[in-house]
Write a structure and sequence with these properties.
The complex is a heterodimer of chains A (about 45) and B (about 260). Chain A has about 45 residues and is an all-alpha fold. Chain A contains 2 helices and no strands. Chain B is mostly helical and about 260 residues long. Chain B has one domain. The chains are: A mainly alpha (about 45), B mainly alpha (about 260).
Chain lengths: ~45, ~260
């Protein structure tokens, strides 16, 4: 397992990048949904 | 949106596409589709990665370093798949002036760029123990680097104009010009003598890879495509809502003035 650091770095990097994309998409959607619920007259009906 | 009902009968594809230009309809439909697509993507990717990392055999030549393949190769496929999606969205934008195609193209850019960066980084992490170098100016690696720059160019260009429509159009043209890079990436290992190994999986021939390695790789790749679709859909949903917020805020400001 002399290549272990390279393997761990590759998997770790993948998890960080994909995780960041997911969290960003979820937070952005939640933020937009909350703002829209507050200001959109159609949402308040 | 006025052209929704006045689309030419000679263009049924255009008319069908424009049914989804209605933001409410898109949000409802995508809201139903998104959770299962995301769950399938997550399940397949996790299953493939666990299989590849712990249960697939080591390579006789590369030993355990071959396990980097299960993240590197799907990232490379997703980088090209993402750019092909960007090109299709750009065609829909230029030909049918579809408003959701513009938003989808804007949202595909950063996701595709992230996967291309991941492909380059994991390739580098695989190259160092195998080739003894983090980077070589090899045809495959250089063409993928060009793909990364094309994504960055698209991201910058669509945001560079005060008039959003001009930005979308310029970005679409750049995306379509950049499509020429996709066959170069695919065939670079055949056209030039490269350090990068040739394709182990082709559409026409049998794979030259053992099934115990092929299956986890395919699981991660298919899961990644579902995940990519889920990410772009989620980001496009957010963009649709943000556009509505901008329109409402502008209307409020005008009403107060």
């Amino acid at each position: 397992m002399t290549h272990l650091p390279f393997i761990l770095a590759a998997y770790g990097l993948s998890i960080v990048v994909v995780g960041w994309l997911c969290v960003d998409a979820i937070l952005r959607t939640r933020r937009a949904r909350a703002t829209l619920d507050r200001i959109d007259p159609r949402a308040q009906r | 949106m006025s052209d929704v009902n006045t689309a030419s009968p000679a263009l049924p594809a255009s008319r069908n596409l424009h049914r989804f230009a209605n933001p409410g309809r898109f949000l409802r439909l995508s809201g139903r589709i998104l959770p299962p697509v995301a769950l399938i993507g997550l399940a397949l990717t996790v299953a493939g990665l666990v299989w590849g990392l712990f249960f697939s055999p080591a390579d006789w030549q590369q030993h355990d370093a071959v396990r980097i393949m299960y993240v590197h190769v799907p990232a490379a496929w997703l980088a090209s798949f993402g750019y092909a999606s960007l090109a299709i969205a750009s065609i829909a934008s230029l030909v049918w002036r579809h408003p959701l195609a513009d938003l989808a193209a804007v949202e595909i850019g950063p996701v595709g760029a992230a996967f291309t960066a991941l492909c380059l980084a994991t390739g580098s992490l695989w190259g160092k123990p195998m080739w003894g170098a983090w980077w070589v100016w090899d045809a495959r690696m250089t063409s993928v680097l060009v793909l990364f720059f094309l994504y960055l160019g698209h991201i910058a260009l669509v945001r560079a104009f005060d008039d959003q429509q001009r930005g979308y159009r310029a970005g679409a043209i750049l995306a379509l010009v950049g499509v020429v890079n996709l066959p170069i990436i695919k065939y670079s290992v055949d056209w030039w003598n490269t350090l990068h190994q040739p394709a182990s999986i082709t559409l026409t021939g049998a794979p030259t890879m053992a099934p115990s390695m092929l299956w986890p790789l395919l699981l991660v790749a298919v899961g990644g495509m579902f995940g990519f679709a889920a990410l772009v859909t989620a980001r496009t949903r957010a963009a649709v809502m943000e556009r509505r917020i901008r329109a409402l805020t502008l209307a409020q400001v005008r009403a107060q003035a």
